[in-house]
Design brief:
GO molecular function, one term: ribonuclease P activity
Order of helices and strands: HEEEHEH
Helix content: 25-40%
Pfam families: Ribonuclease_P
CATH architecture: 2-Layer Sandwich
Number of helices: 3
Protein name: Ribonuclease P protein component
CATH topology: Ribosomal Protein S5, domain 2
Number of domains: 1
Subunit structure: Consists of a catalytic RNA component (M1 or rnpB) and a protein subunit.
Largest sheet: 4 strands, mixed
InterPro entries: Ribosomal_Su5_D2-typ_SF, Ribsml_uS5_D2-typ_fold_subgr, RNase_P, RNase_P_CS
Strand order of the largest sheet: 1-2-4-3
Number of strands: 4
């Protein structure tokens, strides 16, 4: 993902946690925060040390980034999304991660209407 399409600063994460709307399933929690005057959506990732070692955490983040990239044409622009991976995400392969994220996004009505 390009640098400008990522949530990086702690302040931005905290704002999403406090003011954003959250929705979740067993593997992921997603916070959505509308941003005025923002053309694209931005993604922030958080994977706790409880989930696994550094190799596993980085693998989960790569899977999430790729899944979001593949779903990007369906996601509503103009929002910040912070995705938090829970412990069960460590045992999933890419296709399961993508399926689970799709489910969470549908629950949160993140996808564009057709």
């Amino acid at each position: 993902m390009k640098k400008e399409l990522r949530v990086k600063k702690n302040k931005e994460f905290q704002e999403a946690f406090q003011k954003g709307q959250s929705f979740a399933n067993r593997q992921f929690v997603v916070y959505s925060l509308p941003k005025e005057g923002q053309e694209d959506f931005r993604i922030g990732l958080s994977v706790s040390k409880k989930v696994g070692n550094a190799v596993k955490r980085n693998q989960i983040k790569r899977y999430i980034r790729q899944a979001v990239f593949e779903l990007s044409d369906q996601i509503v622009p103009g929002n910040d999304y912070v995705i938090i991976a829970r412990k069960p995400a460590a045992d999933m392969d890419f296709f399961e991660v993508k399926k689970s994220l799709t489910h969470v996004f549908k629950v949160g009505k993140v996808f564009k209407r057709r």
